[in-house]
Amino acid sequence: MNLRHQNQVLYMNLIKILENLMPAGQGSELFLKVLKINFNNGIIGLGGLISGLIAAYQAY
Fold first, then answer.
1. 11 CB neighbour count, 10 Å cutoff
2. Whole-angstrom distance, CA of residue 10 vs CA of residue 7
3. Mean pLDDT for each consecutive 10-residue tract of the chain (60 residues)?
4. What is the DSSP string of the chain?
5. What confidence score (pLDDT) does residue 13 get?
6. In this predicted structure, what is the pLDDT of residue 22?
7. How far is CA 52 from CA 4, 18, 32, 37, 43, in A?
8. What is the residue range of 14's domain?
9. What is the reported pTM?
10. Where are its TM segments located (predicted)?
């Protein structure tokens, strides 16, 4: 595996993890308690969609 491909995999994993935090943080009210931010459902859904698409891409 070359360095460019390895960087792509690492960046995709980082984005996937950050996007997974959005629904989890909203459900546990972490963002509301810590950051005083309440995201709307569209943003939460988009984060879950992006995370799911990356997971599906990495699986196949």
1. 10
2. 5
3. 90 93 87 86 90 92
4. --HHHHHHHHHHHHHHHHHHHHHHHHHTTHIIIII-----HHHHHHHHHHHHHHHHHHH-
5. 94
6. 86
7. 23, 12, 24, 24, 14
8. 3-59
9. 0.77
10. 39-59
* Whole-number pLDDT of residue 24: 87
In the numeric block, which tokens belong to residue 50? 């992006």
How many structural domains compose the chain? 1
- CA gap 10, 43 in Å, rounded: 23
**Buried b vs exposed e over 27-58: b needs ≥16 C-beta within 10 Å?**
eeeebeeeeeeebeeeebeebbebbeebeeee
